[in-house]
Design brief:
By secondary structure, the protein is α/β, with parallel strands linked by helices. It is built from 13 helices and 8 strands. A 6-stranded parallel β-sheet has the order 4-3-8-7-5-6, with helices on both faces. It has a two-stranded antiparallel ribbon with strand order 1-2. α2 crosses α3 and α2 crosses α13. The protein is globular, with a radius of gyration of 18 Å. The termini are far apart. It binds uridine-5'-diphosphate.
Length: 266
């Protein structure tokens, strides 16, 4: 039997969600997340078949950097809290949820989810649009996803930029491509704010920020070894591979301290 959050009050009820520094995190597994995404796309198809508007739903994958950004930027906090699904992407968020007595079942990364989502889309005939990353990378990521998920229909790929001046043209491209799911790789918080800003006019059922997923899928960036991922040390590997991230990563100890002091509150 597939689990569906659609049967619960939306956004996810406080009973099923954790709250960390004012940000809601849904306490679901990756499988439940995929089931929910699946049923949201199916719902959108049904609505469109009845001639009704099918609003785009946003998915966010939250790590400690997101939580810190959400403390400084109220607009970003609102963006995260209005998302249809907000999941724990980061060992720190998993630990914080456990510390606050509202554990999440597992860590859910954008990169892993994208590969699994591609398999679902291939099985159901849903069309995927890949937006963002450096020129040529989304195309290469599309090819890799088609290897991982044979039969996957790529509605389109485009690099573009998150600059507001480009929005109109990008949305026209996506509309033309008749996509069901949009994956945006503009990094955080730009990609998530881009989606929220355009949510009402995005002609897709689902939109999700995926950070460096296209770079990881195509081997332009390397994921941490499985063992490090299991130990919750992916952030350390990333710092080793991309030392320029050190300033951004100061958010990690800051967020942990804030959780100890403030807990659920912003
Ligand atoms: N990116 C982009 N346009 C921008 C900024 C970033 O296409 O203006 C892309 C970049 O090429 C990379 C992704 O966004 O593919 C961000 O990856 P990163 O790993 O930095 O994501 P984050 O850690 O912010 O989630």
């Amino acid at each position: 039997m597939s689990f569906s959050l659609s049967s619960l009050a939306q956004p996810t009820s406080p009973l099923t969600a954790a709250r960390i520094l004012g940000v809601r995190i849904d306490r679901i597994t990756q499988q439940q997340m995929l089931d929910e995404m699946d049923s949201l796309i199916a719902q959108a198809h049904e609505q469109r078949a009845r001639g009704e508007q099918a609003p785009c739903q946003q998915i966010v994958t939250v790590n400690l950097e997101y939580l810190m950004a959400a403390q400084r930027n109220v607009g970003f906090r609102r963006c995260l809290n209005q998302a249809r699904l907000a999941v724990a992407d980061g060992a720190g968020v998993v630990l914080a949820a456990r510390y606050l007595g509202t554990p999440v079942p597992e860590r859910i990364t954008g990169t892993d989810t994208l590969a699994e989502l591609a398999k679902r889309c291939a099985a159901r005939g849903y069309r995927l649009y890949l937006l963002g990353a450096a020129p040529g990378v989304a195309e290469a990521a599309a090819q890799r996803l088609q290897q991982l998920a044979p039969g996957l229909q790529i509605a389109g790929t485009y690099s573009g930029s998150p600059a507001p001046a480009e929005e109109e043209a990008i949305i026209a491209r996506i509309a033309q491509a008749q996509a069901d799911v949009l994956c945006v790789a503009y990094g955080a918080p730009a990609q998530d704010l881009w989606i929220t800003r355009n949510l009402e006019r995005l002609p897709v059922a689902l939109a999700m920020g995926v950070g460096g997923a296209f770079d990881f899928l195509t081997g332009r960036q390397q994921r941490a070894p499985q063992q490090m991922q299991r130990m919750g040390l992916e952030w350390l590997y990333r710092l080793y591979r991309e030392p320029w991230r050190w300033r951004r990563m100061l958010a990690l100890p800051q967020a942990i301290l804030l959780v100890l002091v403030k807990g659920q509150k912003a």
